[in-house]
Amino acid sequence: MIQYRTLGKSDLKVSSIGMGCVTFGREIDLPTSFEVMDHALEQGITLFDTAEAYAGGASETVLGQWMTQRKVRDQIVLATKVSGTLTRQRVIFSVEESLKRLQTDRIDLFQLHIWDDQTPLEETLEALTTLVELGKIRSIGCSNWSAWHICKALILIQQQGLARLESVQPPYNLVQREIEADMLPLCADQGVGVISYSPLAAGFLTGKYRRGQETPKGTRFDVIPGHQPIYFTNHGYDTLQKLETLAAQTGRSMVQLALAWVLGQANITSVLIGARNTAQIDQALEAAEAKAIWE
Hints:
By secondary structure, the protein is α/β, with parallel strands linked by helices. About 40% of the residues lie in helices and about 15% in strands. The protein has helices spanning about 30-40, 60-70, 90-100, 120-135, 145-160, 185-190, 220-225, 230, 235-250, 255-265, 280-290; strands at about 5, 15, 15-20, 45-50, 75-80, 105-110, 135-145, 165-170, 195, 270-275.
């Protein structure tokens, strides 16, 4: 069952399952993208997360066309991200370009896609604060930051009265659990929302990859081999084996169990799922009902 939670200390209410829009304009065509988004909204998913980097802006364009044609802009929480060098000029330009592609006058959650160690953080945060004051963005967040990055930002924000950091977007799944050590406690203590992604470990937890076997051609780990060092480890394969055993014991699929585990974590505000068809959305909704298996 979909729940709705306050993001950080903002006035945004986000669905416990969010629609990750990375597949739109990249892996599925426009009609299929519309079908997926229609179904997601019908099922109560209200957080739609995209980025300027997804398919070179095509994801934002598809999402913007859908919001405009369906007239649903006010029914969703719209989130996007800026990449690269985060100078004041770059951040403001990125917002303007994203607004055009998204065909809207405001972004609910504007996130820094990656940490930029070249630009002073103060300059970036001041630019975001200006955009909040202008009403072009409502809240700010970050993605792929470490706990110390968040700490540094929170200190600057408090010292200088800048717009508050309301969320962080890290990967989180049964294999990749590093955020449990410091980020999750930090966010819980400071009231920062956590929007996690990659609940299926980029597909590793589906069971299509096996220890000692060749990577199937055309799969994500074949196309993007950078995923392999993260998951193709003894820890990764041991986790996969335990998941497979639990699936046999419960009669649930490995995918459903992996999703259910993340959805059941107390300090996660929302879990982003990607989908290439409506069945994958239904799969996530069914997983939400299976959380008790992990209790």
